[in-house]
Amino acid sequence: MNTGFLTIYWRDMLRFVRFRTLLFASLVQPALWLAFFGIAMSNNFDRLTATLPVLPDVRTVNYLTFIGAGVIAMTTLFTSLFGGTVLLFDKNWGLMRETLSSPLPRIHIIIGIGLSGMTKSFIQATVIMGFGLLLGVRFFEGYAPMQVLFSLLGIMFFVGIFSLGFLFLSAAIAISMESPEGMQAVITLLTMPFFFTSNALYPVDSFPPILRALSTINPLTHLVSGIRYFAIGNDFSAIGIHYVYTPNEILVSFLALLGFAAIMFLAARWRFSKVTVT
User: Fold this and answer.
1) DSSP string over the chain
2) Lowest-pLDDT range, 116-120, 148-152, 238-242?
């Protein structure tokens, strides 16, 4: 079995660990975002919803808990979309030419970058959950130890598949671009629609019909729903809205993310098969 993709994976992880500034920023930034934006918005929303009637026999969670899943998803989205940038730098510095001319199959480059980006997403998701619990995010409340372990595995499955899909998309963009500025512009253009048509920060029930339709096919919406299902539960109330998730709905969300990752992998594979680096 050819394990050349492990070389690409290990090289990218070493670069991630050795660039201390990048490592520090990638771990601290989402935690600070949750601390400042999350707490500020939580105080406002909690005060606004304090006057709403409480649903009997339904657990009510604060906005900080509600947004905690969104921050994990948002960080995974940003990290994954920018994950392919390393390929653009390799292309501009001549390292990609060396890699493509080696016996290593091109598909291994995609897999190696995908796995390294997925590992980074796992690390960031763990940091955010740990920091969030210190801030007062009520994840896994009332869960038994085995339930917590099962829920963590479920969250990581969702985060992993989601990150792979956007890493493959990022790799396809990177290998097609010539400048970091151009890639940054494209990624920024993609990030906003995905983020603001999802349920990461607020409910989508009050969206206009077009935006609500977009949210149902938005991979970020499926990721957030999966995280909330495992971290908060299948029946809770937040911001005055009653949320009920069924196992079938979560399975559909997971299959949607799996399908998205498969399509993006095929797109990245097609782009790598056509590329010529001189």
Assistant:
1) ---THHHHHHHHHHHHHH-HHHHHHHHHHHHHHIIIIIHHHHHHHHHHHTTSPPPTT-EE--HHHHHHHHHHHHHHHHHHHHHTHHHHHHHHHTHHHHHHTSSS-HHHHHHHHHHHHHHHHHHHHHHHHHHHHHHT--TTTT--HHHHHHHHHHHHHHHHHHHHHHHHHHHHHHHH-S-HHHHHHHHHHHHHHHHHTSSSSS-STTS-HHHHHHHHT-HHHHHHHHHHHHHT-SEEEETTEEEE--HHHHHHHHHHHHHHHHHHHHHHHHHHHH----
2) 238-242
